[in-house]
Every structure is written in C-alpha cells, then in structure tokens.
Amino acid sequence: MIHTLSVLLENKPGALVRVAMMFNRRGYNIESLAVGPTESHGVSQLTLRVNCEQHSVDQIEKQIHKLVNVLRVRELPPGESVQRELALVTVAAPPEKRAELLTLAEAVGARIADVGPDSIVFELSGEPEALDSFEELVRPHGIRELARTGLVGLGRASSPRAASRHAAVR
After folding, report:
1. Is the same domain home to 86 and 64?
2. Within this chain, do residues 40 and 66 fall inside the same structural domain, yes or no?
3. Distances (CA, A) of 135 to 33, 120, 123, 145
4. Distance between CA 52 and CA 29 in Å, rounded?
5. What is the pLDDT of residue 167?
6. Element (H, E) at 74
7. Average pLDDT for consecutive 10-residue bins of the chain (170 residues)?
8. What's phi and psi for 62, nearest 5 deg?
9. 3-state secondary structure of 99
C-alpha cells in the first residue's frame, strides 16, 4: 500500500540525509521524494511516498519524528489531502502525428512547453495516476525524455482538522 508522508523540518545541512538514511536502515524504498521551502523562513517540507503496510508507516512516522531537525510528521491520506506532481515529457512528433498528440494533450490538460522540428515537450501536473496515464498514451509515439518532480501535498483546507494542523506548527 502506498502512503504519502509530509515532514516539516528545519532547513539545516544534513536534515534530508538523516531522513533518507532512516529509510535505508529499515529497508524501505522511497517511491517519490520532493523537498522545498514553506511559508515559514528556515523550514522545508519534505513529501515522500513509501510502499508499506499501515503498521510500518506508523513506525516510520515515530522514527522520523525522533530525528534532529524534524518539526512535524503526518500522513496525507488521499481523501483528506491535495496531492500533485509535475512531469515534463519530450515526445517524438513528426508533422503527420502532431495533431493526434495535441488532441491527447488537450484531453488530459497537458500544456506545450516547447516545440522542436521533430518533437514536442509537454508539461503536465496532477495526481500521479494521471501522469502515468498520459505517459502510457504517448508511449506509442516515442518518449524521448521524461522527468517527474515527485509528489507534493497538503491537507485539504476543507478538512475539519485543517485549522488545528496549521496552528500546531506556528
């Protein structure tokens, strides 16, 4: 089962490495990892996905919380959070196939980031499953290059616990 964890940590040297090493020591593979600044100066948000059982993710949360520089750890359940990922995909696009590719892109909400003589770079953001679907749709045309950011997520603003989560970090 895939679990998404949100970790707030001080933006200090070694903080990310300590989290990654904790996963390594316990034999868990990180499926996706994204880290960046938050609204609070000196605080970063690390969003990661791991494939494990619920009891294991509970243990992982407890172990991460014990690490130096970690401020908060919480799971982002699919129904109670907004989760997105960004992908850039370079697809072979000879002139006779461009109309078909543009139709596919429009159907899934992909944008054109760049056009070359024989390829198109598409930009797509959304849930990981939507990016997977687009990748499979354009694969027969020839994917030349693919880069994905890793998942980022936040608790839903409409969630009853949203106000208490926000206040706990201040």
Report:
1. no
2. yes
3. 19, 14, 11, 11
4. 9
5. 46
6. strand 70-75
7. 95 94 92 95 96 92 94 94 96 96 95 97 96 96 97 88 49
8. -65, -40
9. helix
**What are φ and ψ of residue 26, in 5° steps?**
-95, 0
Domain that holds residue 16: 2-75
Provide the number of structural domains found in the chain.
Answer: 2
Q: Which two tokens stand for residue 28?
A: 């868990």
At 23, the amino acid letter reads: F
- Which residue is associated with the tokens 């697809």? 91
The one-letter amino acid at 89 = V
Sequence-distant (6+) residues with CB within 8 A of 37 are 11, 43, 44, 45
CB 48 within 8 A of CB 5: yes
Which pLDDT value is given to residue 162?
55
Phi, psi of 148 (to 5 degrees): -125, 145
For residues 95 and 99, what is the distance between their CA atoms, to the nearest angstrom? 8
The pTM assigned to this predicted structure is 0.83
**Residue 110: which residues within 8 A CB-CB, separation 6 or more?**
89, 104, 122, 123, 124, 134
Closest CA to 152 of 86, 94, 67, 107: 86
* Coil, helix or strand at residue 111: strand
